[in-house]
Amino acid sequence: MIQSLLIANRGEIACRIIRTARAMGIRTVAVYSDADAQALHVRQADEAVHIGPSPARESYLVGEKIIAAAKQTGAEAIHPGYGFLSENADFAQAVADAGLIWVGATPSSIRAMGLKDAAKKLMQDAGVPTTPGYLGQNQDPEHLKAEADKIGYPVLIKAVAGGGGKGMRRVDASADFLDALASCKREAASSFGDDRVLIEKYILSPRHIEVQVFGDTHGNVVHLFERDCSLQRRHQKVIEEAPAPGMDPDTREAICAAAVRAAKAVDYVGAGTIEFIADASEGLRADRIWFMEMNTRLQVEHPVTEEITGVDLVEWQLRVASGEKLPKRQDELAINGWAAEARLYAEDPATGFLPSIGRLESLDFYGDSARIETGVSQGSEVSPFYDPMIAKIIVHAFQRDEALLRLAEHLETVHIWPIKTNKGFLVRLLRDPEVMEAALDTGLIERKFDALTRMPVLSDRTLSDASAWLFRQSTNFGRMATSLTGFRINAPRRSKQVLLVNGKPAEFDYDPTPSGSRFEHGFLESLEAGSQFVQVEGDIFEICWPRADGGAGGAASDGAILAPMPGKVIALDVAQGDSVTAGQKLLTLEAMKMEHSLTAPFDGTVTEVTVEASGQVTEGTLLVRVERGEDA
Q1: What local confidence, expressed as pLDDT, does residue 60 receive?
Q2: Taking the model in full, what pTM does it have?
Q3: How far apart, in Å, are the Cα atoms of 139 and each of 162, 166, 484?
Q4: How would you classify the pairing of strands 27-33 and 47-52?
Q5: Where are the beta strands (DSSP E) in 517-609?
């Protein structure tokens, strides 16, 4: 058995691996960049080694530094987690060449499945069903467009070296193909260093079903059943569950058997996932499920499989890497109950899910009703350098509806401030009637986007109770009542009052009569005098008094387009003097390896452009200014 392990990763997956390794008596070594010097995974490991500056390409993606850290600390093995170097065949080979144990798929398997076009051909040869599409080497844009026209729209453009939802674009019409292709290639080149693409027929009622497989060095391969990851936004998974709802025994047997054939076709060793796309227009059927790709690593959503099988997949990885046989045979594995996972991100649904960067001044996951996988703690910084995941929240129950409702209920209790999160969005999604009824497909979130991202409005009753609470707090802390501009505790019933809700003025009819309960919606304890926090449908609102001068804090004019985060301008679509319409794209900003389009807020004229294509910008930088048209 491995005695010492270096984790070539960060965040929640590094902490997850450390937990199992410690339980197995294995010494752990963390690596960290400048931004992660105080990170949770660094504090939890037995030893930690600094490997470079904050950008991943100068630290976590530099294989030589990681191998040197392993040798320096006497680590026997390297576990790559997911992302970063986990599916880099050259790095896996370098680890082996350095005399270290690689806890992952063999370099040959990674290479075989790493390029989507070659993997698809390999699967066809192995008798695994694949979606129709174009896998050719000709990458001329006009040729690709002609192939897409032949396949028939809609089509999906996918980066050959892609993953994690990056480098993918749906195209609904021939006229839109070339623009989508250019954007896809830019993102693919930035994320993977390879801009080649393939084209697939886009399934109109798609379900994303994946099967967890595991192989050892003794020729054994098993599956650990399926997961459903159909609830996605921009091709990135939001909610995952296991098993897949609506999966009958015959279809399960067919898809899982196909997954095992796929793994055996590449002599697979370790944890891997075979991803399938299903046409769910008539329910899940074995003849309407096709191979998409294989992920030759542990998946972000692996906890739901662990919850329904009772297996620790990281422990299996370490045992297999040590040369042991799989701990269980196929007939010893069974499904127990239902599990669901939500990915809690530092991102703001109100701004198109742009990442929210800063310090987690308050962080409390509350209670033990859920499994929490996190790489942060109170006081941690959410930086612009890495994926903005705060935690994965996982719940196990006997039945699906119970698991989803319990997950929503637990999310509502989580308190995070002042970082914005997708928590309210997740709660509304989990409680959506179609989700509860398992009427799933990968387009559900897009269709219901406005309803799922619309924050609730606080009632007059809630604001009245908050006013009374704030007045009591101001008295308790010795504040002068005259500082509470516009507030009178003896005000007549239904008098107009104003509070700041998340920094914006909110007028309401003040009712001095106590509501009879502490608050209409469960208020949280204040973090400081003068502020109160309330959660509604999972969204958190900060309530406080307006300033004495009546201000609500500085804000850019509504025509000022500001950089929502540090990033690089990769496309500038307008110039000074251009006329624009509401929603028209002004520029494209690349941040956190994703492209973000910034659009005109209304019809008008571009009066100022302060940046150039390829320029780096910091958060809050004025990029473009638009003035309203005379008729707007």
Answers
A1: 97
A2: 0.79
A3: 16, 18, 66
A4: parallel
A5: 523-524, 531-536, 539-544, 560-562, 567-572, 579-580, 585-591, 594-599, 604-609
The verdict on whether 261 is a catalytic residue reads: no
Catalytic hit among 111, 297, 319, 343: 297
pLDDT band at 479 (very low <50, low <70, confident <90, very high): very low
Residue in this structure with the two tokens 């990763």, named with its chain if needed:
9
DSSP string over 181-223 = HHHHHHHHHHHHS---EEEEEPPSSEEEEEEEEEE-TTS-EEE
The answer to whether the beta carbons of residues 426 and 344 sit under 8 Å apart is yes
CA 401 to chain centre: 23
Report pLDDT digits (tens) over 328-365: 999 999 999 999 999 999 998 988 888 888 899 889 99
Predicted confidence at residue 529, as pLDDT, reads 62
Q: What are the two backbone dihedrals, phi and then psi, of residue 206, each rounded to the nearest 5 degrees?
A: -85, 140
Taking the C-alpha atoms of residue 473 and residue 462, their distance in angstroms, rounded to an integer, is: 16
Domains along the sequence of the chain with CATH:
4-103 (3.40.50.20), 133-201 (3.30.1490.20), 206-453 (3.30.470.20), 460-544 (no CATH), 560-628 (2.40.50.100)
Structure tokens at 604: 């008008």
Cα torsion 242, 246, 250, 256: sign: negative
Mean pLDDT of 126-136: 88
Read off the tokens for 41: 């995974």
